[in-house]
Amino acid sequence: MVTGSEKKGGLTIGARDSRITKSGYFLRANKLDELPQLINVLLGDMSLVGPRPEIRKYVELYSHDQKMVLLVKPGITDWASIEFISENEILGRSSNPEKTYIEEIMPAKIELNKRYIKNRGLGEYFKILWLTTAKLSGG
Known about the structure:
139 residues, mainly alpha, two-stranded parallel sheet, 2 strands, 48% helix
């Protein structure tokens, strides 16, 4: 990201986000920007599977019921990551990306995370890892 990008908003929107450098596009396109999070997994702060961390601005919009996703260890991948693998493109097509995220994408992601929490187990964990790998491989 370019210097001062946090002042330009929290959403990555489409293929022409002016906040992302050329090398950043490459890293994001190949999901290599997620590799540093493996350090957090090794430190025990994150899991491979669990609700993706959200920026504070959007967490502050959560209802009491939605906040249950904050009670479990965050992860690198989840059902929402699989379902919304092309989120940037969806937001890039929106006339109001912020509104689309808050009113459509964020609630859907939270529901997927709540589903994971309710069905958490070893089988679910490995199913999400498998499907994430398949999606990233083009499957």
